[in-house]
Amino acid sequence: MTGTWQQFSKEISEVVGQGGKSIVAVDGRAEHTSSGIVWRRDSVLTAAHAIRRETNIGVIFAPGRSVLGRLIGRDRGTDIALLKLDQDIEMQPVQFGSTQELAVGEFTVAVARTRRGNIVASAGIISGLRGEWQVARTRIDQFIRPDLYLYPGFSGGALLDGRGGVLGLNTSGLIRGKPITIPSSTLSRIAEEIAATGHVARPYIGVVMQPVEIPESLQKKAGVNANAGLLVMHVESGGPADQAGVLLGDLLLDMEGQSFSDLEDVYQALGQKRAGQEVQTSLIRGGQRLQLTIRVGDRPPR
């Protein structure tokens, strides 16, 4: 039994040591560091909520060794930020593992790096898994919840499986007080988009709407069967909806044939589109049913 335990302990230590070759500390806010994953020798992925400035971000990759970097872009919906370093560092770019075969109960290790440049770790099993989920209308490919403690500075670090594969990026910034791992597939997708454009495209049409019930008298007058719709409360000047002719007070009924009962229905319909694509929308204006074509826009980065 002692030999088995010692062997297990040694293997975990080796996994941490190997994984640590791709982990840095990130000084992106006063007196607090987070961790980061070396994506390329001149680029680091980290937790967006831990970055409070855009330039002069310290990246510590060993005791007494650091470089400066700048923020290329961030996606608050997935809590992912991408940093560009002033120079290449002698670190091993991450090799992402797959999460497709991950199961509840598997043993995992969170790896991070401290302000002083030392590797630290926390361990536990996978306590929760499910498929695709969303945070603030942002798609995350898989929900991964490890049952371990993310100490201060662990956000932005990596979750490793028993073979040393990097399953994703750990963060406590999406669900307050609870560790969540952003899966490797989402990390890769978001990183590539930020590297190419500086932000993550968010389809939008530029309106503020409120769910309302449609009186039976209005249904008969407009010749519709919908019991509910979305009342337009504000139209962004120059936005996609404005350019398509949507007016304040219009009552949106459907988009691409998909009826609306709440705002989530709109987000779901738009989530299937890319900027530049057109959507057909039905609405009621002045008691009459109309059809408008809206060209979906790319939400400006904040």
Please report which band the strand proportion falls in: under 5%, 5-15%, 15-25%, 25-35%, 35-45% or over 45%. Answer: 35-45%
| Average pLDDT number | 92
- How many beta strands in the DSSP annotation? 22
Distance between the termini: 56 Å
Provide the gyration radius in Å: 24 Å
Work out the count of structural domains. 2
| Estimated helix fraction | 10-25%
The side-by-side strand order for the widest beta sheet comes to 1-2-3-6-5-4
Compressed to H and E, one letter per element, the order equals HEEEEEEEEEEEEEEHEEHEHEEHEEE
CATH topology of the largest domain: Thrombin, subunit H
Number of separate helices: 5
Second CATH tier, the architecture of the largest domain:
Beta Barrel
What does it look like?
It is a single chain. By secondary structure, the chain is of the alpha+beta class. The chain has 2 domains: 2-197, Beta Barrel (Thrombin, subunit H); 203-298, Pdz3 Domain (Roll), CATH 2.30.42. 17% of the residues lie in helices and 45% in strands. The protein contains 5 helices and 22 strands. It has a 6-stranded antiparallel β-barrel. The protein has a 6-stranded antiparallel sheet with strand order 11-8-7-12-13-14. Strands 16, 17, 18, 19, 20 and 21 form a 6-stranded antiparallel sheet that branches. The longest helix has 18 residues, at 2-19. The N and C termini lie far apart (56 Å).
Describe this structure in a few short sentences:
The chain is of the alpha+beta class and 302 residues long. It contains five helices and 22 strands. The model has no long low-confidence stretch (mean pLDDT 92).
